[in-house]
User: What shape does this take?
Amino acid sequence: MLTLSIIVPVLNEAEGIVAALEALAPLRRCGVELLVVDGGSADATVERAAPFADRVLAAPRGRASQMNAGAAAAGGDALLFLHADTRLPAAALALIAAAIGEGRTWGRFDVCIEGRSAWLPLVAAMMNLRSRLSGIATGDQAIFVARQAFAAVGGFPELPLMEDIALSAALRASSPPACLRAKVRTSGRRWEQHGVWRTILLMWRLRLRYWLGADPRRLALEYGDVPRDS
Assistant: This one.
């Protein structure tokens, strides 16, 4: 029987962390391990998360660093990397077990973006189609991977941005992903805060420059993230 560890990287998620972790309680009752990895929150994220997770860890700020720390501490045969504002479908465990049981070493879900903008369903459809055609997944799609496959590619590259793209590319080189049509639900707050089309154009531009060899640290600054050593 497949054992699964869910790794949730967090930073200043006190407002929504309890609801996020409570949504995973049915999976924990099925034996799924839940690890929360904090990147130095300045609010009550850690205190609020502790009662609802198997372990709350600390790691240097940055999703790659935090997710690698969670993977190193996890005990599952498979790892699922889940954003704090993303909710899994009810059958997530069975779907992941079936995909890996069929010989896939990694995969991701389709995504549904929740929010007020009428454009968000189109954005999600574009993301899902692009991922299916390219074999590249983003963190919003809840990437899962067999532990051995994750170890074989060295985990997430320690990048301040595009760590999910880089991991997908490394995994895709040895095996195509399982593109599950069941949908995770993720918050559209990022798109709505900065404007849907403005955010889309920014991400396209950043990804293009990443593939052309631009420094991910510079891209992170343009995205609005702060490098860990700043």
